[in-house]
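Late entry, written up from scratch paper. The run itself happened at the end of the previous shift, but nothing got recorded in the book at the time, so transcribing now.
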Amino acid sequence: MIDTIKNSEYANKTGHMCVSKLDEASCMDWATDRDVSCDGDELEDSPIQTLGGLTQCQDQCLNFGKNCTGIVLKRDESNELMCHLHSEMTSCQPQEGAISSTKMFYSCRDNSNCEGSYVRSGIHIIMHSGL
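Output as recorded:
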């Protein structure tokens, strides 16, 4: 992990970096849908301005902890990217320009590449009208 940080774009920056580490026996990935916005209980009083886009928004969710199950990234009225942290992802609907991303967890106790170890995923049901 140290080499990854040293070789990252943040290595030459002043300031600090937060790193989230998952349990050794778990694997986590993101299920990401473009042009989809989901509702759900928001974990912050207001969305977080996110200059770093999807990856930074996902990192915010990881840093929040296990209560954050997914994110919605979209532009506000002043065209700033805003990150919405959710404790659940519900009522997903098509919305141009929005990106929804939900945590997926795997168990890696028996193998190191998580193949065949699917445990749980956030589920999206997208309703399309006019089809």
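The longest strand covers residues 90-107.
(Scratch paper discarded after transcription.)
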